[in-house]
Amino acid sequence: MEGKKVSESAVLTAQVMSPLDANIAGNVHGGIIMKLIDDAGGAVAYRHARSNVVTVSIDRLSFLHPVFVGDLVTFKASINMAGTSSMDIGVRVEAENLITGEVRHTASAYLTYVALDADLKPKEIAPLILETEEQERRSRQALARRKIRRQEREGTLGT
C-alpha cells in the first residue's frame, strides 16, 4: 500500500461561536469544543483511511483559555502516526476575537481513530510519510502515547 503525506489529510476548519454554543455568561461550553475537535480529527482520519472511522480515545484534552460568543474558533488537525488500522491525530484550537484581532491558543487534544471496513472490522490503512523533523517528533510522541495506552489496558503501567 502506498504511503500518504501528513499534508494530504490535514484539515483546517473555523466557526464563529453563537449564543446557542454558550452558557448565560457567554462562555462556550467545553462539550461544544470537544465535539468540534472530534469533527476535525475525524475528518483527518477519514481522509487518511478513505473509509469509515471511529473515535477510540481522547488521550489528552487541555483547555487553556475560555472561548466566548462571537469568537472565531479555528481547528487545525493533522495525523501524527498511522499504525496498521489506527491513527493518532492532533488538534490545535485557537480562538480569535474578531474585534481586537487577539488570537488565543485555547485547547489542544490528541485523539485515536480506527479505520473500519464494510463489515465494521479494523481495516489496514496507508503508512504515513513523514517529511519534516516536526512530523517525526510528533510521530515519536504519538508512539509514546500509544505505549502508555497499551500499558494501561494491560495493567502494567508503572510496573
Structurally, how many domains make up the residues? 1
Oligomer: single chain
Rg calc: 17 Å
Distance between the termini: 37 Å
Based on secondary structure, the structural category is alpha+beta
- Helix % is 25-40%
Mean pLDDT: 95
- The name of the CATH architecture is Roll
Shape: globular
Biggest sheet strand order reads 2-4-5-6-3
Q: Estimate the strand proportion.
A: 35-45%
CATH top level is Alpha Beta
Number of helices: 2
- At the fourth level of CATH, the homologous superfamily is Hotdog Thioesterase
Would you identify the regions where 5 or more consecutive residues have pLDDT less than 50? none
Secondary-structure element order, N to C: EEHEEEEEH
Q: Major β-sheet, in short?
A: 5 strands, antiparallel
Describe the structure.
- The chain has one domain (4-154): Hotdog Thioesterase (Thiol Ester Dehydrase, Chain A), CATH 3.10.129.
- 26% of the residues lie in helices and 36% in strands.
- The protein is of the alpha+beta class.
- It is built from 2 helices and 7 strands, in the order E-E-H-E-E-E-E-E-H.
- Strand 4 (72-82) and strand 5 (86-96) form a beta hairpin.
- The relative contact order is 0.21.
